Amino acid sequence: MDVRIGDAERERALERLGRHVGDGRLDLAEFTARSEQVTAARTTSELAAVEADLPRLPRPVDPERARRARRAVLAATWGPWVVTAVVVLTVWVAVALGGGGTYFWPIWVIGPWGALLALGTLTGRSVAGPCGRAITGTERVHRVHAPS
């Protein structure tokens, strides 16, 4: 079924054509000719015909969504460390107050783990990706927001 289009659809098509020019897929003469076709298009099939031989462009990343995804990744990465740190520090304080010594053993639990997490956070890479392969922050964002 062929549906009529409006100005918003035409504007989005012109933006996509502009990106194709920027990527070098279209020269200015082709862009001009296709822009005229987009402006004259009245239905979705006419609009689709203008872009039929061009690859589909990736959707632009929403900055707010990317920020929320980064925050979720940081919470999932650092949350277990914080909980573990609170537990071992609480145990250490209780033992120290009970006269069991003041050797600061929690450093061996939270120190190396925290150092690896800090390194991963600062470099944008995970220390433990699938099968030992490091994954990038972008991959983590896509995993957090992958469709279910």
User: Approximately how much beta-strand content do the residues carry?
Assistant: under 5%
How many beta-strand elements?
A: 0
Report how far the terminal alpha carbons are from each other.
Answer: 29 Å
Shape, per Cα inertia axes: rod-shaped
Which features would summarize this protein structure in a list?
mainly alpha; 148 residues; 6 helices
Descriptive notes:
The chain is 66% helix and 0% strand. With 148 residues, the protein is mainly α. α1 packs antiparallel against α2 and α4 crosses α6. The longest helix is centred in the middle third of the chain and has 35 residues. The radius of gyration is 27 Å and the shape is rod-shaped. The relative contact order is 0.09.
Offer a quick outline of the entry.
The chain is an all-alpha fold.
What is the strand and helix layout of this fold?
Layout (H helix, E strand, L loop, with lengths): L6 H16 L5 H13 L3 H7 L12 H35 L8 H18 L13 H8 L4
